[in-house]
Amino acid sequence: MGRARRGWYSRVDRLAPQDAALNPDTLLLTAVAFLLAGFVKGVIGMGMPTVSLALLSLGMGLPAAVQIVVVPTFVTNVWQALIGDGLRRLLKRFRSLLVATIAGVWIGYFLLFRTHPEAMTALLGAAIGIYALSGLFNVPLMPRVKREALASPVVGLTTGVLAGATGNISMPAIAYLHRLNLPRNDIVQMLGILFTLGAAALGFTLAGHGNYQPELLALSALAVIPGVTGMFVGQKVRGRLSERTFRRALFCGLLLAAAHLMWKGLR
């Protein structure tokens, strides 16, 4: 069991008291981190955990940062899933992908997470980086989708297995949705749906691992305010971007996420 606890999340029962203190510096760092992370998520539909963890861990350490990102990430994912007019349509169209993702999370955690979680995280980062570069240089990696009814559950299962093994819900679902040439607002809303359900599945899977410190849980709840504010501003900016600019912003965001995952997996 000890090896399983060394994966993509950190033990939270080793936090020093000063890490959990709600002092002005901590509050300011949290506000800035989630304003920026929410803005990025509002523009490209993802990136809040990556950006917020990178900034928070500089000032308070990764164990505390992991706890703080939970509530604002979940709230903004739900908001992203509900904003727009495609919720029922997307749920109906991609229901097999979503169900397979949830099943894959359980499989990935129990089969892969306990073996080499760091290597799996680095491998996922490399895959995201390759896909982002292919998008920036317009070199498609995924073949054209001819039978969506067959492809969706396969993509969902693969995405779930990787999520269960690494804690990151992204590939190959993101590449698949882009290959289907969905409108940008549908892509963003679908990512919100996928992230919400995937994160819920991960939460249930990881239930019983670690305990929240009350101060950090309170700070996580407070972080919803700057997170939502930043996301609201980012959504306004996204509405003014051209389709080409939006996709380039998304791929650049994916490159940053890839670098973060590879660093986390190889350090």
Description:
The protein is mainly α and about 270 residues long. It has one domain. It has helices at about 15-20, 25-45, 50-60, 60-70, 70-80, 85-95, 95-115, 115-135, 150-165, 175-180, 185-205, 215-220, 225-240, 245-265. Helix 5 (about 70-80) runs parallel beside helix 13. Residues about 1-20 have low confidence and may be disordered.
Secondary-structure class? mainly alpha
Report the major sheet. Answer: none
Low-confidence stretches: 1-20
Query: Care to count the β-strands?
Result: 0
Observed structural traits:
267 residues; 0% strand; globular; disordered N terminus
Structural topology:
Elements: H1 17-20, H2 24-44, H3 48-60, H4 62-68, H5 70-82, H6 87-93, H7 95-113, H8 117-136, H9 148-166, H10 173-179, H11 184-205, H12 214-222, H13 224-240, H14 243-266
Helix pairs in contact: 2-3, 2-13, 3-4, 5-11, 5-13, 7-9, 7-11, 8-14
Short summary:
The protein contains 14 helices and no strands.
